[in-house]
Amino acid sequence: MRSVYNFNAKWAFSKEATAVPTEVSSKWNFVNLPHSWNAIDGQDGGNDYYRGTAYYAKSLDKMDLPEADRYYLEINGANSSADVYLNGKNLAHHDGGYSTWRVDITDALERENLFVIAVDNSANDRVYPQVADFTFYGGLYRDVNIICVNESHFDLEYHGGPGIAVTPVVDGKNAKVDVEVYVKNLKSGQKLVYTIYDKEENPLASVESTDTKASFEIQNVHLWNGLKDPYLYCCEAEIFEGDKLLDNVCTRFGCRTFKIDPDRGFILNGEEYPLRGVSRHQDRWGIGNALLPEHHIEDMDLICEVGCTTIRLAHYQHDQFFYDLCDERGLVIWAEIPYISQHMPTARENTISQMKELITQNYNHPSIVVWGLSNEISMKGDTDPDLLENHRILNDLCHEMDKTRLTTIAAVSPCPIDSPYIRIPDVVSYNHYFGWYGGDTSMNGPWFDKFHETHPNIPIGCSEYGCEALNWHTSKPTQGDYTEEYQAYYHEELIKQLFSRKYMWATHVWNMFDFGADARSEGGENGQNHKGLVTFDRKYKKDSFYAYKAWLRSPEDAPFVHICGKRYVDRVEDVTKVTVYSNLPEVELFANGVSLGKKAAADHFFYFDVPNKGTTELKAVAGEHTDASVINKVEVFNETYRLREKSAILNWFDITEVDGYLSVNDKLSDIMATPEGMQLFGAMFAAMLPKKGDKVQGGFEMNDAMMQMMGGFTFLRLAGMIGTMGVNLTKEQLLDINAKLNKIKKPAK
Length: 749
What we know:
Blueprint: E1 3-6, E2 11-14, E3 29-31, E4 53-61, E5 70-75, E6 78-79, E7 81-86, E8 89-95, E9 101-104, E10 112-120, E11 139-140, E12 144-149, E13 153-154, E14 164-171, E15 174-181, E16 183-184, E17 190-197, E18 203-209, E19 213-218, E20 224-225, E21 229-230, E22 233-241, E23 244-253, E24 258-261, E25 265-268, E26 271-272, E27 276-280, H1 293-306, E28 310-313, H2 320-329, E29 332-336, H3 348-362, E30 368-375, H4 385-401, E31 406-412, E32 427-431, H5 444-454, E33 460-464, H6 484-499, E34 507-509, E35 515-516, E36 528-529, H7 543-552, E37 561-563, E38 570-571, E39 575-582, E40 586-591, E41 594-600, E42 605-611, E43 615-622, E44 625-633, H8 668-672, H9 675-688, H10 704-710, H11 715-723, H12 731-741
Parallel strand pairs: 27-28, 27-34, 28-29, 29-30, 30-31, 31-32, 32-33, 38-44
Antiparallel strand pairs: 1-12, 2-3, 2-4, 4-10, 5-9, 5-12, 6-11, 7-8, 7-10, 13-16, 14-15, 15-19, 17-18, 17-22, 20-21, 22-23, 24-25, 25-26, 35-36, 37-39, 39-42, 40-41, 40-43, 43-44
């Protein structure tokens, strides 16, 4: 009978060792798994976190293992490549940092054993990801086990999968359930027993066979129906020799139908079911990606609190524990491989192996509806024949391995809508940041209308949109200011534009949580991407979190009211705007006990003008629900609310602005739209800005699309960004540039 021996405790660890050790050294550090060696340096900025090989070593007396015929070392996550050594012998190598893989260690086991796992997250040209806006944490960051089995057992080496695949097909009120198992060393006289159980673990049907395939029919099937009713069945397969049970596997599954329609969006079990949700990275502050079950549960609780119906699990395979949570809670999932940002012709085989592992290991999860082929892979162009062939191979592979699900991509914003690349998958989504990286918020909805008009038969969604916010505040939010108020405004606008377009098959906010991106130096806190609706430590829900909750949570299910700007207490204006979010139809706001009136808002966003004198205690009332906050009148703006970039010589509020004239706080595109701006600064910009082909923040390479996007940044913001590329302007130079711009009239809109 199978048993699992947890192998997490007390590994000797070293980043300094230069060779595979022959003994456990007391000079090394000792760590418990899961563990990441970049939990600190991968989140503090500078793009200088350790990327290389580190060693984990652990001794084991074979007598401590349960008695079995065969033993397999199971590694659930080693980022990004790893080698397994047992008693000095190299047993296996694996490329791909986010999937489960197993190694048969039986024949190499001795009485006393030394396990060494060499893990490597260094840069190379054969394993994805290599270029992306997140930290590639190194380490053995998920569980390591030893699985002990009989000689006859369900296959543990078939792409790291569970050894069982269940395919339910709903037909009317019933469902046909096909089961296939992968077995090793099944012998004459042994048999397979397949059993289907309901949610309460009552057996519904059982079949004995020597065949590795079996079929069942479930009468009056109970559907897996998203958030409404995520009902799960279970299928168990067992190997018997006579009455002796040799091995067993069990997997949950759900019965559902779905369709993605170019006009009606996502349809679940015959009913329209709008997919409105978030993307998720798996890391945490001070932990990296070495998450524990309680971290996954907290993440899921927060995602459910906001009211999501879908999650894009970016940009790699996530922990099986989290996919299980998705099944249980009824979230509809986009699962993908880390084929991201920069196509590498030398890494095609790695995209194939990672896709095989993703599908094999996650095939039974009813929450998953699409396999993601790639993310923003056309950064350097969308017509590379090798890139296109790689995608066609992956697309065909997905359909060959899984006849029940669709394929998708997340296309980078500048990718042309007539690109051959977007015609490869079944459905398409785009990553758009109009209103943050150039452009303005009003451009988002019309862009999708144009796509839908041009390609009426291609389902279109939005796979990323968002903007950064930290604990900075203002009463006049502007694009690029990193305030919580601008993020709230941005998401208010995007919610109204995207959620009102029924044809969009899915929308995913980037991101649910702030996450580690060690190359970043923005927003005054380096090493992170702050686009999350919730902070990196999960301690604070930004106001934008409640904007989504107001739209997505039913008032019958979770009525609430929320006053925005609780961290923005000191305010200088005599009358200040206060925003309230609620999923209830009417809100009344009180200031020091005096009603400022009741307001109704079909869009769930309520705006009040509040007299600002002395200290004002605010109370919002919606039905039986209340929320409170405080504002305080000050004569001088509280400077702790202003963004001060750590690397900035000047901040935007230190700049002299002349009404009707340009300054370094204006967008590069507006400056260059004037003849004087072009004449005076064209040569300077050309000398200062990165050129096509240059490497920039995060390892990205400048191309035409990225250069065009830079036009949407203010000159001052660009000056800070290019400072990370070795181009540094002095305070005097910036002030001189600003003085020249103050003499040039702004272009007419």
